[in-house]
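User: As part of a screening pipeline, I want to sanity-check one entry by hand. Below is the sequence and the SMILES for N-acetyl-L-glutamyl 5-phosphate. Please return the complex as structure tokens so I can compare it with the automated output.
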Amino acid sequence: MIRVGIVGGTGYTGVELLRLLLPHPEVEVAVITSRGEAGQRVDGLFPSLRGHTDLKFSAVSGKDLQGLDVIFFATPHGVAMEMAPELLAAGVRLIDLSADFRLSDAALFAEWYHQEHSSPALLPQASYGLPELFRDEIRGSRLVANPGCYPTAVTLGFAPLLEAGLLEAGGLIADCKSGVSGAGRTARLGLILPESADSVTAYGVSGHRHRPEIEETLSRIAGADIQVQFTPHLMPMIRGIHATLYGRLHKPMSNEALQDLFAQRYAQEPFVDVLPFGEHPSTRTVRGANVCRIALHQPRPGQVVVLSAIDNLVKGAAGQAVQNLNVLFAWPENLGLAQIPLLP
Ligand SMILES: NC(=O)C1=CN([C@@H]2O[C@H](COP(=O)(O)OP(=O)(O)OC[C@H]3O[C@@H](n4cnc5c(N)ncnc54)[C@H](OP(=O)(O)O)[C@@H]3O)[C@@H](O)[C@H]2O)C=CC1
Ligand SMILES: CC(=O)N[C@@H](CCC(=O)OP(=O)(O)O)C(=O)O
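Assistant: Here is the complex for your manual check:
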């Protein structure tokens, strides 16, 4: 049994982590923090958890956190990088759900996150926590950068094609839709029901901070410079990411060969479900579960369309963080992650 802490327990990903970790057989959640709710019972703020925990929120204190085995940061960008050096020095392993350690280049971080990186020396130590691609690196690391939600859906969708060197480098498009919980729990006018329901809006079209993250990972696996036009949209739903990915093959291949490529690439991956060729995964089929469902299309010879759906709070955040925890401790990767998606 290990003892873990969650920093940022009142946010959507923090409380989702708690939901997943409470039944985890190898984990005791010892600390869950909130600056605003310190001293309050967690199930007071989140009544769905009544009967499942007696935890109270505590203030963020380095002293409480230093005795733990693992700390999850479910905080806005900028928090983990401030606290990481001291915690790592105390022997704690960190899984950071924010973007602080996702980009390998501190200058790129400053450009997209509009703040200087306070712990650039730690960047080379961080592993990128997408186990389907970087499992071996994660296993040996003490600092895991959990990927962004859009990058998870996009990277898993493009990866088999890029690893096999089948895609033309130019012209990759990731047209993505997200539920409103992707923006976090902090109140913002554009996210209230009358503003976000019954409407679809694109945003960040000229440049979103997930673009450099997606491009860095895809370039790494392709072994070449990959550029993607990434266009996110806000959808009138709570959970879910749907990515429609477009790429051109160097030369047309049969639908069967395309399907085989993905089926074989993910055959041993418990959290990637490759649907039969030509199907249409929907976000409804992944809600609450740590799964990415993928389907392939070739509308014209050489034009590939990959559809990829995840729950942004699970495979896009908290579920992936638990998967990374399982990798770190060499436990079965699906430990504590057997949730069946919600119906309907
Ligand atoms: N929502 C999503 O779908 C995804 C989110 N992420 C990333 O995960 C992280 C958390 O996201 P999300 O849960 O949506 O965010 P929320 O805004 O819902 O929650 C943020 C949490 O962080 C705490 N917090 C805020 N500032 C500080 C601080 N300075 N020090 C300590 N705690 C702080 C808040 O609690 P309090 O103010 O009470 O301390 C709150 O519990 C973000 O970096 C986000 O980008 C990644 C993938 C998907
Ligand atoms: C719908 C929505 O607003 N989604 C967020 C992305 C989700 C997220 O939290 O990603 P990071 O961890 O990289 O910040 C956005 O577009 O900013």
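Points to compare against the pipeline: Residues 81 and 128 are 15 Å apart (CA to CA). The radius of gyration is 20 Å.
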